[in-house]
Design goal:
- By secondary structure, the protein is of the alpha+beta class.
- The chain has one domain.
- It is built from 2 helices and 3 strands, in the order H-E-E-H-E.
- A 3-stranded antiparallel beta sheet has the order 2-1-3.
- It is globular, with a radius of gyration of 12 Å.
Length: 72
């Protein structure tokens, strides 16, 4: 799983989508991503589509949920 995170970080930096890992907005602004059977289940993603696509690539999404929140 650690190698998966390393590869994802490199891909995000190369794509220019990684900004920082600072403080998040409140949880009521979050969107969830679940990956089941290799397919992303996206909940409430009307304007965070690109962020959710990246969130679905996070290795832990295969066994849990990933919250995507806009920065503060």
């Amino acid at each position: 799983m650690a190698a998966g995170y390393g590869a994802l970080g490199e891909a995000m930096r190369a794509a220019g989508v990684f900004i920082d890992s600072g403080q998040l907005s409140p949880s009521n602004a979050s969107k969830l991503v679940r990956v089941t059977g290799g397919q992303a289940e996206v909940i409430d993603c009307s304007d965070l589509t690109a962020a959710l696509d990246w969130a679905a690539r996070i290795p832990a999404a295969t066994c849990g949920s990933i919250e995507a929140r806009p920065p503060r």
